[in-house]
Amino acid sequence: MTFRCPDRPGIVYAVSGALLQMQANIIEKSQFSEPISGTFCLRTRFETDEADSTHIKVVLEAELAQFGGTLTVRNEEVKQRVLIMVSKFEHCLIDLLYRHSEGELPVDIPLVVSNHWDCQELVARYGIPYVHLPVTKETKRQQEQRLVELVDEHHVDFVVLARYMQVLSAELCAAISGRAINIHHSFLPGFKGAKPYHQAYDRGVKLIGATAHYVTSDLDEGPIIEQDVQRVTHAQNAEQLVVMGKDVERQVLSRAVKWQAEDRVLLVGNRTVVFQ
Amino acid sequence: MTFRCPDRPGIVYAVSGALLQMQANIIEKSQFSEPISGTFCLRTRFETDEADSTHIKVVLEAELAQFGGTLTVRNEEVKQRVLIMVSKFEHCLIDLLYRHSEGELPVDIPLVVSNHWDCQELVARYGIPYVHLPVTKETKRQQEQRLVELVDEHHVDFVVLARYMQVLSAELCAAISGRAINIHHSFLPGFKGAKPYHQAYDRGVKLIGATAHYVTSDLDEGPIIEQDVQRVTHAQNAEQLVVMGKDVERQVLSRAVKWQAEDRVLLVGNRTVVFQ
Amino acid sequence: MTFRCPDRPGIVYAVSGALLQMQANIIEKSQFSEPISGTFCLRTRFETDEADSTHIKVVLEAELAQFGGTLTVRNEEVKQRVLIMVSKFEHCLIDLLYRHSEGELPVDIPLVVSNHWDCQELVARYGIPYVHLPVTKETKRQQEQRLVELVDEHHVDFVVLARYMQVLSAELCAAISGRAINIHHSFLPGFKGAKPYHQAYDRGVKLIGATAHYVTSDLDEGPIIEQDVQRVTHAQNAEQLVVMGKDVERQVLSRAVKWQAEDRVLLVGNRTVVFQ
Amino acid sequence: MTFRCPDRPGIVYAVSGALLQMQANIIEKSQFSEPISGTFCLRTRFETDEADSTHIKVVLEAELAQFGGTLTVRNEEVKQRVLIMVSKFEHCLIDLLYRHSEGELPVDIPLVVSNHWDCQELVARYGIPYVHLPVTKETKRQQEQRLVELVDEHHVDFVVLARYMQVLSAELCAAISGRAINIHHSFLPGFKGAKPYHQAYDRGVKLIGATAHYVTSDLDEGPIIEQDVQRVTHAQNAEQLVVMGKDVERQVLSRAVKWQAEDRVLLVGNRTVVFQ
Prior knowledge:
4 copies of one chain form a homotetramer.
Chain A: E1 2-6, H1 11-21, E2 25-34, E3 39-47, H2 53-64, E4 70-72, E5 80-86, H3 91-101, E6 107-114, H4 120-125, E7 130-132, H5 140-153, E8 158-161, H6 170-175, E9 180-184, H7 196-203, E10 207-214, E11 224-231, H8 238-261, E12 265-268, E13 271-274
Parallel strand pairs in A: 5-6, 5-8, 6-7, 8-9
Antiparallel strand pairs in A: 1-3, 1-4, 2-3, 9-10, 10-11, 12-13
């Protein structure tokens, strides 16, 4: 369960009381009071004999109604459903598929969508349906509509842009707001936009990075979920930075997807609270 | 406050109830259930109008008595008192003194003890008393007795061995058990004992490290509080590793001291729980 | 080209003279004088119109004969041939195969050998022959002989043990000495032998690691090529360390294989010189 | 010695020939051909019986004149002279002074200049003259003139801005171009200008950083010498980032100063070649 509400005394007491009432055993518990907005954030994993997660939610809602917040309750065994979008670069996709096949990523992947055919064979190896949705300036609106339909049809919980190289329209961004994770191949806010490794080379930075963030209509400005960097020297040219950066990109994206899949990421304003 | 007890349902409920009763506002809260020993560990920072921390402890003890654990309550404004021991190397000491003078380390340092005179001037600059306790094979027992007396006289909460190059006797280790932090200049358990950087050079490792741990009578085997590493190459010789390692040592030790000063480190068996 | 010889003045002058004579253009050049053994090590990449690498070698040998060292010359377009060995864990193998398919690893992989069937399908996807060589106490000698035959038949330059879980006999170690890279799932010299993550958990370390090293008959004592670490906390149990460690293992092994493939690793005594 | 010139065959041969002629023993040698500008960069440490470094320079110049480049020759025992500038924050200054006193920084520090009195006592402890040069909008021109005079009077090789919080005029920047190192408290190009930690907090980044760069008239746009980062979480507020960032700042600046002091940094266009 996760819970977000305006901070005030008594919340923890109420939550732990409700859990005790259900004879729940707390496995993990993290909380944080965001000082600027005064938002209390909580995530708890617990186990209970109560099989019906709807009933659990009803009990918790009753106890927590007084705090006027947002409650989510999820049975861990029901995995979140993820739609992965990709263009031509497959390094992030292969990492997600590999970790998924190893049981490291607790999600279901009902389909992979691409505007190209390049990754079809890779996806087929893992037995996952591949939907080809080409896009041109003229067909962008229809393509995005089809995408939203696919999200609905497949009961997708969140979308992962694994180096999907199309800018999404403001409408699509709004439709999947808070439910879409993008990987940008720079350490944001440095090097927004196109060809960030070439920008990084030109600027002569000594570390390159990658940033996983929620998609918003403001390009490369969405709330950051995870970032990491890698040391480089004068001896690498822009093309070598592109190759070296792939490792950082896939690790950063995979971590962000895993945390999202485990409900560890709570959005507060334009910043994320990540419970680890 | 910190609390450790055998894990069972209801602990969080009881703690949050007691705090609510005192109209305390929780600032930080971390908990962890150590699975092997079944130990529940909790650390909470809270603020309350109740000025008397003894009264707070009485209230909490009453509520938590049923769980049979260990409770500590400390008023943050009353800083822990630290005795620093040093021999000839001053890099860890200078880092502690500097951070202390900057307000980064929330401790009081009533005195620095050394078996040499080398660091006297440095310590004098910071206006801290310097006690010279030389040691030989013959005088070791007396020297250690004097040290224990100093710990008592100055109401020292914990001792920091900032590259103190003497092996402590089993008796002294027992006397300050859980209250003494040492920095070892290797990434333990690799390279125990003397000249670890020379051992590291001979073995040809690609990273060197440092380890802050609680002192036990089993040399370099105490519970680890913090570790970190630094990349090296074939091009550094053992003496250069010694110099490069100083940076890691002082950062690792300073972090460990800060966490101990903030009651973030709980000892469970031979492992530490570090709440960050 | 790489060159190793006892250090004395004039080597660089002789090498650069020979290259100038062939109108070679130096692309990369690294050198290091190992102080303990007094060994001069050099690696140079150069391009020249001279197509015949045998002729190049003859010229260089003539110039360098006076220094009495070891010279290697390789045409970059003729990739080194790598035999990968694996047991059941596939995370290192998949990383090598992926990077190979992406063109990040400049090697040819004529075959993968395993004592189990588990990775057969994965290897088949990449169109690489899979040789199943099961092993029991009784058949170990024959199995290892067959392996040496495969190394010869396929003109293998070096062998990669990508989590191959069998201890090699002293005879096999000798046969492939300096030509076999193993990944050990700990930060050596800590946690040699079996179940290193469980050892790491028991010791309570705050960082876990992995080590790529040359295989020697002295288990986990071979010259280290590359190491890296990852931060962990009290909250991860041994099984979670196993999962988290996979990422470090595969990165460390892939880097070591890449460097070996590019002739960047020179062995000097029990230590490696790695030119980056 | 360092040497920079347009790249063409024969440079290494000429340099090694000249050194051989002086019976010099090469201790370190690094070279790099910057591909965009076609600049060959070289740095060599060597020892020779020839005591007169002017004579050495004459010999080298004669041999290298044909390549039309820039040559520097320096006797390592004659340390470079550094003027440190500081305002109120002393964490970078104390790190430089400490490392200098430990012999880790091979420079002479004839004076520290500040627009405030705050660091006077600290500097006095190390026995270094402290020059107070206050500055207002009206006196800026004179203050900067006085600074340039001090640079000349004290034969200063380079200037270090150790959190000097004044923007330098374009004239001053030009006067000390390539000879002044600044530390900016963000991972450039992110968060230029004022209060970068507060900007970082607002953006919700997961790593904070620091950047040492050459001063140019284009604020925070100078060639980068070194950068590093540190992980942060949602739980740190802007003030805590300020404190945590101090560690990165001082390490990054100290490394940059050390490399500059050892002639390891060569400027090529707007990027640096750093030989390690």
